[in-house]
Each structure stands twice: as C-alpha cells, then as structure tokens.
Automatic annotation (TrEMBL):
Naturally occurring in which organism (per UniProt): Perca fluviatilis
CDD domains for this protein: ArfGap_ADAP (cd08832), PH1_ADAP (cd13252), PH2_ADAP (cd01251)
Protein name: ArfGAP with dual PH domains 1
Stored PROSITE patterns: ARFGAP, PH_DOMAIN
Domain PH: 132-233, 255-359
GO terms for cellular component: cytoplasm; plasma membrane
Compartment annotation: Cytoplasm
Membrane spanning stretches: none
Length: 377
C-alpha cells in the first residue's frame, strides 16, 4: 500500500511540473501544493480554503500530505490547470478583474465561485450584472460627518457617463454625481473594517473625494466593482481610440501604491509636526486627518526626475518639532515637503514607493495636472 501511495505522490509531483500546473489555477501563486480532485486543478493553500466553501463542487487535498488513489491521480493528469482554464474561463470579459495572490479574500473567492459554481464565463447572459452598461441597487455608505453607514441608492449609467447616489430612496435628484472618467474603486477591507469594504474615489474640481461602501452580499460587491471597470473600459475605448486593450486595462481601476501614517509640517517648516494618514495614488500624494475622511487636507503632485522632483532620506538641519525619527524630504520645483516616519522600514518603503513614481517619465496629460497644482489657491 505504501508503495502505491509513494507512486501516486511521485506522479503528482511530476504533474506539478507540467506547464500551467506550476502556479495556482485561481490566483497565480507559485508552487501550488493543493489540488481539487473533483475539478482537476492545482491550487495554493489559500485558494484551497476558498474551494472548501463550494464543497458540493470542489473537494481538495494536499498533494504532499494526503493519500491519493490511482483513479484520482489519473483524473488530475487528464485535466490540469491549462485544460480547466480553457473550459471555465472561455469568455472572461476583458475588463473583468482577475485577482492575484496579493488581492483580498473577497475578490479571490468570488472569482472562484464565478468560474466553478456560477459558470459565468461559459455564458454571456450570466455576465449581465456587470456587462449591461447600467446597474442600480442599494449600498451601505459611510456618512461624512458621524461615520455611521446608511443605506443609499446607487445608479451606474454608461450612457450618462456617471455613478450617482441618492440620499433618500425616493429622491429625484442625486446627492452626488461622479463622472466615470475620474472614477476609481479599490477594495479596502482592513481600512474600512469590513470584508466587503470598497473605497470609491472621484475628482471634484481636481481634488480627490472618497466614499466608502459595502454590501453584505459578496457577489453584489464584486459585481459593482466589475461594472465600474466595464464602464471605465468602454469610456476609455472611445476617449483613446488608438490605445490597445492591454494599455487600457491597468487604467480601469488601481490600488494605491502605498498608504500609512507619517508626520508632516507646514510650508514654513516652523510649525509642529502633525500625524496624518497618507495615500500615494499614482502621482497624487494626499494626506488626511483620518483614514476614512471624505476628502484630503492636502494633495501634493509628484512629478518625474526630469522635472526636478526627487526624494531624500532625512530632514534639513535645524528642523524641530517632530516626534518620530526617520525623515523624508520631497523636493519639488516649488518647495520642499518634510515628512517623518515611525520606523526605518517605513521610511525605506515610502522612499521606494515615491521613487517608482519619480523614475517614471510624465505623460502629456500629467503636465496639465501639474500645472493645476501649481496654480491652486
């Protein structure tokens, strides 16, 4: 018996070396060591836990630790990740977000459910909730002042080019209208404090505005997210007719480059340093009094090295009034911004994040944004 098991294990190890099987079938993580022996796919430990939520469809085992019958091994050999992908991901819309191992549990679980449980990518009619160009429903939205979550009606309309919400369910006029061309959405479960928490941002008078929403139904939340991506994709196809799909996809939604607390001082460098929540969103470095504030206390445009932007470790001499020890000086053509981090690791991470932006040449449209920042009152 032991020799049969040893033979099965060796066969499975060989299968793990085949093209497609070296990464998780669902999130792309390297070296999966688990498998669904009813679907015939190799998955990582994290995704194997999500497969257990659809136990009527997918049954999982450890490749290395659990016993395997020769029949199960034969099935794994007959399917494998590439064949399963060809079957279950036949018609994934270009705009649909395919999560990676770095993404939150909600995105990964709903991707797994969409593929194997709902079979959304075998039939375009099943993609209507995010492909129709119009979506309406109720989301819990965080109130700007008191911070409590209230049910609000949201409407996304590609034809109008907007996402809007209404303060009262029977209201005729929306409380806020957000244009699709400046819209972004990113899941923020830790920051918002709920597994389904979504942060939506938009520009109003070229300043960033945040709204925080969630829904108890995980599928609903991911459908909203992909509906926003679809609307952005179709808007961009019209706005940038020469751009390829691969050029547009990274622009549909974006995660923030980095977030966290730092201390800052004012433009004269004589005020005491204050602790603020910072968000680096593409070329905008924003700071907030609270991570869940509706709008930033200030925004700094981060240009490129060619345009005299740089970041330096430490602070200029004779600066006082800070509590933390690890300084950063951001040099722009107009002034220096002084920040302080709590740890040396934070300092290194922030400098690295800022440098990725500074090392990137500016696009033509970014010069217009920079000009706006320079002339901002």
């Amino acid at each position: 018996m032991a020799s049969d098991q040893e033979h099965s294990r060796q066969r499975l190890k060989q299968l793990l070396g085949k093209p497609g099987n070296r990464t998780c079938a669902d999130c792309g993580a390297a070296d999966p060591e688990w498998a669904s022996y009813t679907l015939g796919v190799f998955v990582c430990l994290s995704c194997s836990g999500l497969h257990r939520n659809i136990a009527q469809i997918s049954k999982v085992k450890s490749v290395l630790l659990d016993p395997w019958s020769s029949t199960e091994v034969e099935f794994m050999d007959s399917v494998g990740n590439n064949a399963a992908k060809a079957k279950y991901e036949q018609i994934v819309p270009a705009f649909y977000y395919r999560p990676t191992h770095k993404d939150c549990t909600l995105l990964r679980e709903q991707w797994i459910r969409a593929k194997y449980e709902r079979k959304e990518f075998l039939c375009v009619e099943r993609q209507e909730p995010y492909s129709a160009g119009y979506r309406e429903g109720f989301l819990w939205k965080r109130g700007r002042d008191k911070g409590q979550y209230l049910s609000r009606k949201f409407i996304l309309s590609e034809r109008e080019g907007v996402l809007k919400y209404f303060n009262k369910h029977d209201a005729r006029e929306p409380k806020t209208v957000m244009k699709i061309n400046t819209l972004n959405a990113t899941f923020q479960p830790t920051k918002i404090g709920t597994a389904h928490g979504l942060q939506i941002t938009y520009l109003k008078d070229n300043s960033t505005r945040n709204i925080f929403v969630y829904q108890e139904d995980g599928k609903e939340m991911v459908d909203w997210f992909n509906a926003i991506r679809a609307a952005r994709f179709h808007y961009m196809q019209v706005a940038f007719p020469g751009a390829s799909t691969s050029e547009l996809l990274p622009k549909l939604t974006r995660n923030y480059i980095k977030e966290g607390y730092m201390e800052k001082t004012g433009p004269k460098h004589t005020e005491g340093f204050k602790k603020r929540w910072f968000t680096l969103d593409d070329r905008r470095l924003m700071y907030f009094k609270d991570p869940l504030d509706a709008y930033a206390r200030g925004e700094v445009f981060i240009g490129s090295r060619e345009n005299s932007y740089t970041t330096l470790p430490g602070l200029p001499p004779n600066i006082q009034g800070y509590h933390w020890q690890f300084g950063i000086t951001i040099v722009t053509p107009d002034r220096k911004f002084l920040l302080v981090c709590e740890t040396e690791e934070d300092q290194k991470d922030w400098i690295a994040a800022l440098q990725t932006v500074i090392n990137r040449p500016m696009l033509p449209q970014e010069y217009a944004v920079e000009a706006y920042f320079k002339h901002k009152p």
